[in-house]
Design brief:
This protein is mainly α. Helices cover 66% and strands 1% of the residues. It contains 20 helices and 2 strands. It has a two-stranded parallel ribbon. The radius of gyration is 22 Å and the shape is globular. The two termini are 33 Å apart. The N terminus is likely disordered.
């Protein structure tokens, strides 16, 4: 595999580096911190220690840590641009996918950086878009106008569906070879063969082109009935915990790694000591608040899903009841986004285990009549409405539009993507 990666990809990296440049060495050091999966921010001191220079010396080349992060974004785009330049949709999907997969197998730090940035507060999508725009890279989808406003929402939804499906299936495949991504170890994917990667690409291609096997479309009339059934009436949900609302705001603003008891207390207009009356520490506060909210959502979703008459209806109800709940509890969105990516990364992360262990255990308890499928597939069908809503809100979709587009996603799941 090493020779394949060398031939396909390493030239792309070499052409953008000046090997003896201190500035490039700093950039190399920053990326090396992602060779083991991490979701906490890197520090300039960590970078300086790897380079063997002082922290002050970094500022001769980068004005700030944010400036360094932007340079990392730029290099990431430099590396991925050649792949996108040759991409022609499903026509050459397997070829391009296999090249990308092989590259990230050998350069996991770039994939781990990308995953971290997805969860970082701020406009990562916009930063990537601007980097691609500088290089005159057009993926062919023609989704955005020159001001990055979505001009073709139907196509944008196809992109979301395709990305989530590729991302999820790829990580589940990786899990079969590296059971747990340990923060203290560099993942070793070299047991993966080229044949296995080709089979993976063919399976994803079949999913995108023809839909999920065993899943059938539902008549529009029946879809309307099911959507009506899961609607939440006024007063049906209990009032949201005010401390959770404050926690959700802090997560949205600073990310999970930026949560502190002081910031939550400040959002509530309280002294930090007031929260210690209820919680012994930050992890306990997060675990209890998030678990309570998630279990409430899971119970709602399971109850609604149980009303489905067959497998396809249960999938449909699961997705739409989750969307309906999130429309009424938007504060859960940043939490769900984090969990979706963490579930796929499956990192051995003590903080993650403390916060969502209760959630995972509850998820595994199947409500009678609820959706009874493997947990990997549940993660996939849960990521779709979550990502649709996160991106939809970001780009000004109306709530009624989100439901229409989730219908279209379900059609893609049953029949494939219409080109």
């Amino acid at each position: 595999m090493e020779s394949i990666v060398n031939n396909c990809c390493k030239a792309k990296l070499n052409c953008i580096r000046k090997k003896n440049s201190t500035k490039e060495k700093i950039l190399d050091a920053a990326f090396s911190l992602y060779k083991t999966p991490r979701f906490k921010d890197i520090s300039l001191q960590e970078v300086a220690d790897i380079c063997g220079i002082t922290k002050a010396a970094i500022f001769r080349h980068y004005k700030s840590k944010e400036d360094l992060i932007q340079a990392m974004n730029s290099r990431f785009v430099d590396i991925t641009c050649p792949f996108f330049q040759t991409f022609r949709g499903l026509e050459n999907f397997t070829e391009v996918f296999e090249k990308i997969f092989l590259y990230f197998v050998d350069h996991f730090e770039y994939l781990a950086f990308f995953m971290k940035e997805l969860l970082r507060p701020g406009e990562f999508e916009n930063r990537l878009y601007q980097e691609f725009k500088k290089r005159n890279i057009n993926s062919g989808y023609q989704v955005f106008d020159e001001n990055r406003i979505v001009k073709n929402k139907e196509t944008y939804v196809k992109v979301i569906y395709s990305f989530i499906s590729v991302f999820h299936n790829s990580f589940q495949f990786a899990h079969s070879h590296v059971k747990v991504f340990d923060e203290n170890k560099i993942p070793d994917f070299h047991s993966i063969t080229q044949k296995e990667i080709h089979e993976l690409s063919e399976n994803i291609y079949e999913l995108l082109k023809n839909g999920e096997k065993g899943l059938e479309d539902i008549s529009d009339a029946r879809k309307t009935e099911l959507e009506k059934f899961i609607e939440i009436s006024e007063g049906e949900l209990p009032e949201e915990n005010k401390i959770f609302s404050a926690l959700a705001f802090v997560i949205h603003t600073y990310g999970f790694v930026g949560v502190t008891v002081e910031r939550v207390a400040s959002e509530l207009g309280l002294a930090k000591s007031s929260l210690y009356t209820y919680f012994s520490n930050k992890n306990t506060m997060m675990k209890e608040l998030i678990s309570d909210e998630l279990i409430q959502m899971i119970n709602f979703v399971n109850k609604k899903t149980a009303a489905g008459k067959n497998y396809s209806e249960k999938i449909y109800l699961h997705m739409f009841s989750q969307l309906e709940y999130l429309i009424n509890r938007k504060s859960l969105l940043p939490v769900m986004s984090w969990i979706s990516i963490q579930e796929n990364m499956d990192m051995k992360n003590p903080e993650k285990e403390k916060i969502i262990k209760k959630f995972i255990n509850e998820k595994l308890k199947k409500t009678e009549g609820a959706l009874n499928i493997d947990d990997e597939k549940i993660v996939w069908i849960s990521m779709l409405p979550v990502t649709l809503m996160v991106q939809g809100i970001k780009h000004g979709f109306k709530m009624t539009e989100l439901k229409l587009h989730l219908r279209n996603m379900f059609r893609m799941m049953t029949k494939g993507i219409e080109l």
